[in-house]
Amino acid sequence: MLPVVAGLLLAVAASGRGAAAGDQESPPGSRFVCTSLPLDAAGAGCPVPSVPVQGGALPPEEELKATVLQLRETVLQQKETIGSQREAIRELTGKLSRCEGADGKSAAGTWKKELGKGKDTMGDLPRDPAQVIDQLSRTMQTLKDRLESLEHQLRANVSYAALPNDLREMLQRRLGDLERQILSKVAELEDEKSLLHNETSAHRQRTETALNALLERVSELEKGNSAFKSPDEFKVSLPLRTNYLYGKIKKTLPELYAFTVCLWLRSSASPGIGTPFSYAVPGQANEIVLIEWGNNPIELLINDKVAQLPLFISDGKWHHICITWTTRDGMWEAFQDGEKLGTGENLAPWHPIKPGGVLILGQEQDTVGGRFDATQAFVGEMSQFNIWDRVLKAEDIMNIANCSTNMPGNIIPWVDNNVDVFGGATKWPVETCEERLLDL
């Protein structure tokens, strides 16, 4: 049997060489003999590289890297093997075509029958070239999948502790910077929230104050039930020098950078007429005070700073008094019966009048709204106490004093519903402005 097989192989080889050296067509009478090869002979044509076994114990990361490199080499070798096998497949396909063309149907049937009984000519690869290529492609895809899986596993197994010190420090710095940025942003948002809340509260308070002022004014207009002919035609009488007779203005002052205070008063008390009015705020009982105490001249106090006024009103007659002041350079003016009698400066310059205090008629306050001293109390009568938030012109003050105009204060107007009396102080109808002029 062996000599027969050897003879067949020699014949195939000789015919192959003759076909390669001849013309395009084989000489008449020549033919190819095709047969299958033994399984052990096919192994030499399709070498499969073996994966070397790693010796010694290696870290998991190094072992995975080595495995990835080996798989990459295997893929390259498989590509080379596929290229060489494609050439062999093309050569064998040509030979098969010539064999089938040269043989008759019976010979072809016999050859196919014998070929069906044999084994594959390329090891464990199929005889169909298309199937060979598909199988090799699937093998390559499998190897690629395994390679990607190993790379993914390698990346997953690299722990944070295995990172280099420089990289770990850089990551820590980046995390620290990110944390500080987040904390800073949170603090900014908290500040904005607090600021927005404060602005909203302040706006709501201003709105409520304005609404309350409007409601009071509407209420005053709706009532119209004053005991006097007109809401401003009354006077407050403080007949005794005590520490419990006084009047109180219901409204308070806003922050002021200038003001004008005008009033009618009559007093014959001595020594000194006392305190016609005082305005106290938390932390400063002498924010605005007009006082004549003992044998001293009349004094104007702003933020506890003093200016003496050249006014003389303790003759028991009605007198119209106006005082102006501005925070700019602390300028002040004093008017009596429409005539300017004095002026000065540097009285609490650049100090704004604080808001929210208590305005008292007839007493000097040592605390806000209280601690009156009987020796400083006003004795007499007063009317038409008005306050403006600006310095009135001299002609306006003259017109008010000679009864040619009626100009109520835009901050504190003299109206019945805005003045309360305590301790025995009383409100009475007052003479008309013309009658007061006759008393001068």
Which features characterize this protein?
440 residues, alpha+beta, seven-stranded antiparallel β-sheet, 14 strands, disordered N terminus
Question: Brief overview, please?
Answer:
This protein has 440 residues and is α+β, with helices and mostly antiparallel strands.
Question: Counting H and I runs of at least 4 residues, what is the number of helices?
Answer: 8
What do the pLDDT scores average to?
75
- Quote the distance from N terminus to C terminus: 163 Å
Main pleated-sheet profile:
7 strands, antiparallel
Give the % helix. Answer: 40-55%
Q: Pick out the low-confidence regions.
A: 1-30, 41-46, 48-55, 104-126
Work out the strand percent.
Answer: 15-25%
Order of helices and strands: HHHHHHEEEEEEEEEEEEHEEH
User: Which secondary-structure class do the elements indicate?
Assistant: alpha+beta
Arrangement of strands in the largest sheet: 10-9-8-3-12-1-14
Radius of gyration (Å): 59 Å
> What overall geometry do the principal axes of the alpha carbons give?
rod-shaped
Number of E strands? 14
Describe this structure in words.
The chain is an alpha+beta fold. 41% of the residues lie in helices and 19% in strands. It contains 8 helices and 14 strands. The strands form 2 sheets. Strands 10-9-8-3-12-1-14 form a 7-stranded antiparallel β-sheet. A hairpin with a 2-residue loop joins strand 6 and strand 7. Helix 3 packs antiparallel against helix 5. It is rod-shaped and about 155 Å long. The relative contact order is 0.10.
